[in-house]
Amino acid sequence: MTKTFVCLPGDGIGPEVMSEAVRVIMALGYGFSEQPIGGAAIDTYGKPLPVHTMAACAGADAVLLGAVGGPQWDHLGGVRPEGALIQLRKELDVYANLRPARAEGVDLLIVRELVGGLYYGARGTREDGVVYDTLEYTPAQVERVARQAFEFARRRSGRLLSVDKANVLETSRMWRSVVTNVGLEYPDVELSHGLVDSVAMNLVMQPGSFDTLVMENTFGDILSDVAAGATGGLGLAASASLGDKGPGIFEPVHGSAPDIAGTGKANPTAMLLSLALALDYGLGEPDLARAVESAVATALETMPTHDVGGTATTSQFGTAVLDALGKRVPLSQLP
Q: 227 and 267 share a domain?
């Protein structure tokens, strides 16, 4: 049975970069469907994550997301396009977010807990005007993401850095204790702990000293962008969000970039690298994933887009990727 993708183009440059991913999916012989999400879904269905979109995602082998959001929906108050992504992550229980960052002399992986913490805790405004957001974690939430991180560290260099703020936060003290206990099951992995502020500084100054890092949701949101900035910027950054069962979510990190939407200047690199992650972790095709990554690297050299010093359009870059991929994979022989 042919494995299938659900593609969620979304808003801004999302549809443009997704189109290039779809071209590769078709060339590789996989099935796919496109579903609305974010602002585009609000415009048509009145909600950012329609029921039929959620159902399609739950039944897929992998979910590809372009981008959501834009200024035209800022006036809606509580009905935000970004709410679709938070809900989708929660519904699919993709609790481990992988953010690789690579450059010359740098090859690190951030494992971010994705469905707990500050973004999902109680929030509100009291009668006295105090506004609050609650950082909450259970030991079980920490244990499962820690175990994922140890598994990835074991496949890499065997080093894992757990990031927290244990000198201040009670949740971080629990986090550190749970990660330490999980580490007893992985004697072949060297575990160390670091405070988030010092880790942030060293990610800027010495990014090559890191290998695999694990951290809670908010710290991961911030430090993964720091790592991306240290290795070329958000425009080239891909991500994978995985759970214990069901499909993962694979998406670029760059956002909807409404200022360049429709101009043909969007760089689809991060979307295509997210597709490579989907092939690897979602469909179990690591060789095809490496072929796509290599084809993207070739296109960056031969047909760079505006943001990396070239003149290629989004579609021209996609064509260069397909040309390079065809030299590595006999596309005509694929199902």
A: no
- Please indicate whether residue 328 or residue 107 has the higher confidence score (pLDDT): 107
Which entry of 137, 165, 265, 280 is annotated as an active-site residue? 165
CATH code: domain of residue 4: 3.40.718.10
89, 100: one domain: no
Residue 121 has pLDDT above 90, yes or no: yes
Domain membership of residue 101 as a residue range: 96-236
| pTM for the predicted model, two decimal places | 0.90
pLDDT surpasses 70 at 333:
no
Q: Are 92 and 243 a contacting pair, CB within 8 Å?
A: yes
Catalytic residue among 93, 107, 211, 225: 225
Among residues 197, 244, 259, 287, the one annotated as catalytic is 197
State yes or no: pLDDT of 276 exceeds 60: yes
Average pLDDT, the chain: 94
197 classed as catalytic: yes
* Domain's final residue, options 215, 236, 257: 236
Which long-range contacts does 194-198 make (Cβ < 8 Å, 24+ apart)? 194/161, 194/162, 194/163, 194/164, 195/163, 195/164, 195/165, 195/166, 195/167, 196/163, 196/164, 196/165, 196/223, 197/165
Instruction: Please tell me whether residues 224 and 278 are part of one structural domain.
Output: no
Pick the catalytic residue from 119, 211, 307, 323: 119
User: Among 185, 212, 236, which residue terminates a domain?
Assistant: 236
Instruction: Report the distance separating Cα 172 and Cα 189, nearest Å.
Output: 21
Range 243-266 average pLDDT:
94
325 and 286, same domain (yes or no): yes
- Rounded average pLDDT over 154-170: 97
Is 119 noted as a catalytic residue in this protein?
yes
Catalytic residue among 93, 221, 307, 323: 221
For residue 220, report the phi and psi dihedrals to the nearest 5 degrees. Answer: -65, -35
| Active site (annotated) includes residue 225 | yes
